[in-house]
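Entry 14. Structure prediction run on the chain below.
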Amino acid sequence: MKWLIGIIVILIYCGITFYLGWNLKKWLVAINVFRFEWAYWAIIFTLAFSMMIGRLHEALKPFAIIGNYWMFILQYGLLICLIVNIIVWFTPLKNIVWLGVAGVAALAVIFMIGTYYAYTPVTRELSFAIDKEGEPLRVVVASDFHLGALSNKGHLQKFVDKANAVEPDVVLLVGDLIDDDPSWYIEDGMHEVMKQLKTTYGVYGVLGNHEYYGGKIPLLVEEMEASNVKMLLDETILVGNRFYLTGQEDVTNKKRAALSQLKPDNEGKPWFVMNHTPNDLQTPIQAGVDFHVSGHTHKGQMWPNHLITSRIFELDYGYEQKKQMHTLVSSGFGFWGPPTRVGSQSELWVVDIEFKGEK
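Output returned:
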């Protein structure tokens, strides 16, 4: 049954690719630059499957980068082609040349805007109070770096500079730190940048779904430890004698521990939980979690994908208080696939927490 579904998906994908190629071909013919039909279609379908080609061998990794950009063309090229076709079919405007120019220009403008929002991260601020005893705490939260060829060393440096500027007590990195394979992280020497983070109580991270996709979790954990990032894999620790911090493995791991198994014995101290995918917020509420942080959703990353994430997740972005639990879902500091964000922006959160419990 799975192979049949796979074949249907591939056929639909090929149909969409042909539709994009057919529209582009009509415009190229109209401006009299179309040549070599077989070569043209070979290039179009190579672009369409470049993401898969890039996974076949290390020497083919550049194809994976091309594939990331193709994903942007696939989404917005499809939308633009549909709009142009509707205009041609249902309005008096029939000039293929100028409609094609307008479509390509629109795609270029969207790409430039998306690139700006992807590579220009912002610092968002949040403050709230927890009804437990403690001194004020400043927490930096970030997720979904997808560090690799495109979300690169320079982008990571922006995070370190912004995080250090606010002098955090602790930094929480909430999964998808690397883009599947940690090899880019290692080869580009990104650990040298990550080690520059300055905190009072340390830097802590958890696994996301993409760490599982890469299948090199032991190597990733080793590299993060060398970067002064303590990875929490289904474990709870007491940080600075101030608060308990739990790092859950991602829901991708079907054998991950239940949150109840990770609950600290001392309920008098604040309890923070890092869980990459915000698929279940009711369980931590019932368990008594005070601060729950997630990522994963990217806020859809590219409009209108947020309409999907908002349907899938109870909270797909931002802050919300649910009973005693303060919940934060970040759109991420990096990006997956194309280095573009439309309707979202790369971000980190600075969270100032007050404690109102009796001393």
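The mean pLDDT is 94.
Filed with the rest of this week's runs.
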